[in-house]
């Protein structure tokens, strides 16, 4: 979990929200080559479902590879994949916002409006991005504030 913008689910135990600010994601190696399990034991790689794209997006976000996150989001959307927990859209929202795609934000906002806890997190994370080194365009900021930061 990236303490810069922790992604907290309503189903997480309270302890997770207490320790999230202390997470040191920069200590996780992103350059290591993952081992490939033996097909003879584990079988073929399973189909790529939502979890595949979400985990790949989280890894790309860790290295701030915004283009890769957008590409993964596009593929997941094209395949009509969806998370069980709305908060898992957040890395994709961040990447689309950073890439300047304000139009797609509205489709995500619908799901977040149903969950005020998640809507508030999206508002905080996106504004924190803009306040640090990840400046967003005025158009994107306006959409973010309209969609995620107002009641």
How much of the sequence lies in strands comes to under 5%
The CATH topology comes to Serine Threonine Protein Phosphatase 5, Tetratricopeptide repeat
* Shape annotation: globular
Succession of helices and strands: HHHHHHHH
**Cα-atom Rg, whole angstroms?**
16 Å
Secondary structure category = mainly alpha
Mean pLDDT: 90
Would you identify the regions where 5 or more consecutive residues have pLDDT less than 50? none
DSSP strand count: 0
Largest sheet: none
Number of helices: 8
Number of domains: 1
- Please write the CATH class name: Mainly Alpha
Distance between the termini: 28 Å
Fraction of residues in helix? 40-55%
Produce the secondary structure layout.
Layout: H1 14-19, H2 39-42, H3 50-62, H4 66-78, H5 90-98, H6 105-113, H7 116-131, H8 138-148
Helix pairs in contact: 3-4, 4-5, 5-7, 6-8, 7-8
